[in-house]
Amino acid sequence: MDTEVPGVTVDHIEEVRVGVVIKPQSTIVDLWEQCVRAYSIRRFLATKMWVRGQVGYVWATYEGLDREIATVRHLLSFMGVGQGTRVAVISENRYEWMVVHFAVLQLGAHFVGVPTNVTPEEAKAIVRSTRCRVLFVESETSYAAVREWIGTVGDLQHAMCFEDKEGEASYAGAVALAEASMHERAPVCKTIAPDDTALIMFTAGTTGAPKGVMLSHKTVVANISSVYATLGESITHEDLFLSLCPWTVAGALTVEVYQVMLKGCAMCLPPEMIEGFQDLPTVRPSVVVSVALPFQRAYNNIVHEIMNRKMTKTLTRATIGSITESRVLMKKPPVITRVAGNVLLGGFKSQFGPDLRMAIIVGQQLTKDQGELFADLDVFVVNTYGCMEAGGILATDLDVPTRLKALPGVELRVVNDKNEVVVPGDIGEILVEAPHAMQGYFNLHINEDEAKNSLVAYGSRTFVRTGDFGSLTGQWVNVRGHKDVLITLTDGKVIDPLEVETLLCKSPFIKQVFIFGDRRPYVVALVVPQPVAISNHLRKIERRDGVPIVNEREKADCVRAELRRIAQKLPPRSHVRRFAFVDELTQANGFVTNKWGFARQKIEAHYVHYLNQLYDDSPKFFGHAVDDYDDLF
């Protein structure tokens, strides 16, 4: 017999029961179909565009997106895409990227995700080796570079451009034509198995040429489930996400896109990262998924502004200290502290918008002092650790700030050079067990021995090498860095260059710094200075007037003094002995990856002459010394 609950209708009870169920045998296609049924009329994706003479975000619902996915699925099927074939996308985060992603998976095909920082030669090699049948690119410039590949490179038969509206390769035109001529939609493939390959994601190329990682539906769904078990309670269906992390970065899909799906949330897609960060006050997101760079820059700007305040610098620092103390002791700040915080820190809070409460950092992590400052501004930072070989995120510091803890269901081990498990707390290479593990590397830019050694068997259990060094105590992980990034000096001492670079970039006089020294006697650096900050500093201490122009000697003196000051916080092995000035390292010149880290091998190859001269033992060399003045200008 049905029982009635006073004040609650049966329709309401049925609505509450609607949701998504993650099963071990689920596929990504299954999860999407459940989300469309559960949240059909909810807003899902917003894209920034011109509408009626104004710039704004235009929304698409789950149901509306599913209709376009069905149209693109029909279009791809007409192009010959079917189960086991491959479709590649080279683009930033876009509405169209998401549509193609699900349409390809629904056909049982393999989605090939390529980071946008690849060179044309690397992209051509990827298209040839993966034997993609269709290639999607973002800009018309990119299409002009790839149109000649059709019919000549691998199995490529079609290339389309997202930004082209009326040309021969127009994505919008093709979709409109397919929708008008479609009498019966191409069916969703019914024979997709959990162990089938879903994604072939190429790495950003931090330590060399991009490598393809093959991920099954089972691997991706397992990571989605583990992330949901950790972050699910921190996310509600009313949250609005802002995407500031490329989806080709390890973990971005599973910690952002799929979590938004499962909760029925909404997500905004800005045209690019810097513009998206500037849109925080207008978009008013509650959760941001981002790489570390925009928050590192925001931290540096906040600290610089506080330190340059004349009348209120001491009071501002005292206010921040009081807020930090109250937060650590889990007490409500005193009234005077709250008032002072609103007055002195209100401008900093406003740049993040009134609703932002959580920032999930993918890739390089924020430091403890950076996280604490944002916490004082009511923005809770969640650092993550993941790798492409594991299909996504492996650990977060949600429980204890700056202390990573493995996700539920993730089995990690740390081994030495002989593949022997080390005692808790000792450093070695981190391994991860299936199903949180790739199927294998794609046969591009990887030799047979490397592919074979990527898997480690312990009886019936199989682990995959992450390439990262660290230690493990229980479920707590301490990641030291990637084995191909860590610097080993000639005396055997090991240095994490990312740690040194992050610390040096906190200086207002240094915009970028690249650390080098593997198998060398000491560490050197390539520095991109901040001429305007140096000029302002010199005018302040020397009472200069006029245009902000500084010469090489003045820049070198300021950077030299900063390196000496910061060296006091570092062990002697991490001290920079010599440095040289270089032009800014950007994605345009190929020295920065899509996750805004350095493409280290490309930088070393390009500036090999500079780096070799920095180790010249003669009295004069190319660059500047930190400990003496034997400089050559």
| E-strand count | 27
Mean pLDDT: 85
Poorly predicted regions are 1-17, 629-633
Any idea what the shape is? Answer: globular
What percent strand? 15-25%
The number of helical elements comes to: 21
Question: How would you classify the helix and strand content by structural class?
Answer: alpha/beta
Into which percent range does the helicity of residues fall? Answer: 25-40%
Distance N terminus to C terminus? 92 Å
> What is the CA-based Rg, rounded?
26 Å
How does the major sheet shape up? 14 strands, mixed
Overview of this protein structure:
It is built from 21 helices and 27 strands. By secondary structure, it is of the alpha/beta class. The strands form four sheets. Strands 1, 2, 9, 10, 11, 12, 13, 14, 15, 16, 17, 19, 20 and 21 form a 14-stranded mixed sheet that branches. The radius of gyration is 26 Å and the shape is globular. Mean pLDDT is 85; it is low at 1-17 and 629-633.
What layout of secondary structure does this protein have?
Layout: H1 10-17, H2 28-38, E1 43-51, E2 54-61, H3 62-78, E3 86-90, H4 95-106, E4 110-114, H5 120-130, E5 134-137, H6 140-146, E6 158-161, H7 171-181, E7 197-202, E8 212-216, H8 217-231, E9 240-244, H9 252-263, E10 266-269, H10 273-278, H11 280-283, E11 287-290, H12 293-307, H13 313-328, H14 335-350, E12 358-361, H15 368-376, E13 380-387, E14 392-400, E15 403-406, E16 412-415, E17 428-433, E18 440-441, H16 448-453, E19 455-458, E20 461-473, E21 476-482, E22 487-488, E23 494-495, H17 497-504, E24 510-516, E25 523-529, H18 531-542, H19 552-567, E26 576-581, H20 600-606, H21 608-613, E27 624-625
